[in-house]
Every structure is written in C-alpha cells, then in structure tokens.
Amino acid sequence: MKKLLLFSGFLSLNALAIAQCGQRYHDKIFTDSTVSNIQYGSNVNRLNQAENLNLDIHFPKGDTEAERPLIIIAHGGNFLGGSKTGSDVLPMAKDLARMGYVVSSIDYRVGMTNFPFPGPDDGDATESVMRAVHDARASVRFFRKSYENGNPYRIDTTKIFFAGVSAGGFMALHLAYLDQMSEYPPQADTVNQYGLNGGLVGLSGNPGYSSKVHAIVNIAGAIGDTAWIKAGDEPVLNFHGTADATVPYGSDIIQLLGVYPLLMVHGSYSVNDKVDMLGILNCFEIYEGQNHVPHVSNASYYDTTLNITRNFLAHFVCGDALNCSYGPTITAVHEVGTPGFLSGYPNPANELVQLNLEGFIGTVTITLTDMSGRIIRSFNCSGNQSTVMRNELPAGMYFIRAQAGEQVATTKIVFE
C-alpha cells in the first residue's frame, strides 16, 4: 500500500525530477486513443492449428512527440485464458498512455496440454509458458521492425519495456532472464508438442530483430529458475501479495487452479533476493497479507501499482532518481467541457485558442507553460472568456492554468 515519506528532502527531489520531463510521464495529461487488433505474428497452437497473434495499441491522443517510450503489457489467466482487454491490464494500459507512453496490450497463445483431463503436468505447464514467451518476443520484434518501416507508431526503440500480470509476469521474467539455450527448460518437449520450435526466440514472427527490452515490470508472476538471472541483466519492478494462493510469493510448487500441482517456481520474493544479490537495479512492492493481483479489485492497490510503476519507469525515461516508494500523487488534467473548469477551443489550434472560463469568479490569472514546466507568459483577465495567442510559439503541446482565488484548473492545448 502507499508508503509514508520519511524525510522532507524526498519531496524536493521529486519536484526536481518531474521538471526534467515536465508533466509528461508523471501525470495523466492526455486522453488515450486506441487502435485494436493489429496482427503482430502467428504460430501454431498446442493443437497444431494456425493462430494469428493480435495486439492493441493505446496512444496519447494529440501528442506531437516524434518518438515515445513503448510499454508492452501481457494479461494473466493461468496460461489458459485471459484477454488483452481484461481488467488486469486495460486500465493500466490506458492510464500509462494518458501519461504519454505508447502502450501495447497483447494476446498470446494460451491452453495447456492435458487440461482438464487427465490433468497437466510440469511439461505441459512449461510448454505453455514457452509458447507465450515466444509470442512476447515476437511482439517486441514487431515494433522494432515497424520502426524500420517508417515508425508508424512513433516509438523510441531504445526505451522498450515489458510488463505482465500473473501469467504475463511469468512472460516478463522469462523474456528478460531466460536468454541462453543451455537454460532451455528440459520439461518442454519440442519434438512431440506443437508450437515450440525456434529455440529461445521462437517462430511467432518478425525474425531478424532483437527482442531485448530495457526493463521489466512483474506483477505477481514467477520464474522457473533464479539461476537464469545474472549480473548485468534487465532491471525489474516486482509486485506481489504475501498471501498469494495462485502464484507463490516465494519458492514453492505452483498449483494450477488449486487442483493440479505442476512444478517448482520462484515468485517475486525469490526474484528480489537474487537481483539484490547481483546488484541489478530493482524495486519490490510487497502487498502484505494480500492474495493474487489485488490491483484488479481494489482501487487503492491499483493506485499504488500505477504510481510505483510510473516512478520506476521515469528513472529510465526522464532520468529521475530511482523511487521505489509511493508518491507524489498522480494528477489528471481536466478535460474540455467540464462545467466549472477551464477549456479551450479550437484544440489543436493554429493561431489562437479561445478559453472558456465559465464558473470562475472575479479576476482570473492565466499562465501558459511548456512541457518542461517553463512559464511562457502570464496575464489577468475577467469574464467568462479569454484568448491565448500563439505568436511565435513552435508547434507542440502546452499547458494553461487558470486561477481565481481558490479556484484552480488546468488544461492542455496543442498548436499545430
């Protein structure tokens, strides 16, 4: 849950860090726009049936940046089901897009041989993980390939992150740390089971491109063997509940649906021990007394998960000091047309923006700032309307703040 800030210097440090990116990547300053069901690859599933692999992309609407960091996120579902639009991943994908990231939520091959009867074993479970990891790597390669083909999604390929929830957390950990063929799990039968060929990288699409990522976020996942984690490997942010009855918090036999004992896995506590020992950059948020993925059903845990994820990623994207704690609070810009708040039209604009100040009382101070927080101009007005002229401002996104006494509102505008 939320952490107390124990020393006063922390707040000033965060204020300095936020200034490096402005509000971008720290607050929800955009609305999100979604493009659905883009095919990123294909492969045969466990039944030897061809299966197309699709993803959704969430963009910061109205953003003018040429290249943005990319977060790929994978859903949970015990490797038996789940969806890229599931409640475990969709709210986070949308909120991170509102902060300025490009976020892709992916579907991947699910299903486990011998489930439900006569019951899956350690080989069936390992094979389902490897199929999903092959698909995860193909999704990373898809975006690197797209970059060379005109970069239609306007991503920065030096800042690609992979996040996953539950089964998706398994995928994130294995994508990052299972990187030597000598480590390939012997339980996975690549001869008699379908869709497992291609070694570590798999055959799910986009060959010839790297599937490396900058860092990972693991929410209640686990790894097959912590020996795969080595010094210099990818940084990791772990979340896990100490009373997780679905995926072990530490090292234990995982029980599928509480019925089928599968194999020994190592949850976030064990992963954290290993990365700490190796000096790998990491954060670990422990959900004391909580069961599996509490962020799905509890708004406070969702807020904490989003906030700490924001802080972790900002270390790599904005150069912020690493902050594994909760805070500062994520804010959202009020949208156009909300009664009593500031709005502007047209938006995007070419030469001027007409401000609607309905609901403000008395003299209103208007402040225009750029993305870094630098004040460009400030002036006073009265009445329900005012105008902001572009003058010589370059194209891009700006923020307008209106204040009259205790009435304060902020909106974003774009000059094209």
Termini separation comes to 42 Å
**Beta-strand content bin:** 25-35%
CATH class of the largest domain: Alpha Beta
Q: State the helix count.
A: 6
**Spatial order of the strands forming the largest sheet:** 1-2-4-3-5-6-8-11
Main β-sheet description: 8 strands, mixed
Radius of gyration: 23 Å
Shape: elongated
CATH superfamily of the largest domain: Alpha/Beta hydrolase fold, catalytic domain
The CATH architecture of the largest domain can be given as 3-Layer(aba) Sandwich
Class from secondary-structure proportions: alpha/beta
Overall residue-averaged pLDDT value: 90
Subunit arrangement of the protein:
single chain
The CATH topology of the largest domain turns out to be Rossmann fold
Low-confidence regions: 1-19, 335-340
Q: Level of helix content?
A: 10-25%
- Secondary structure tally: strands: 18
* String of helices and strands: HEEEHEHEHEEEEEHEHEEEEEEE
Structural domain count = 2
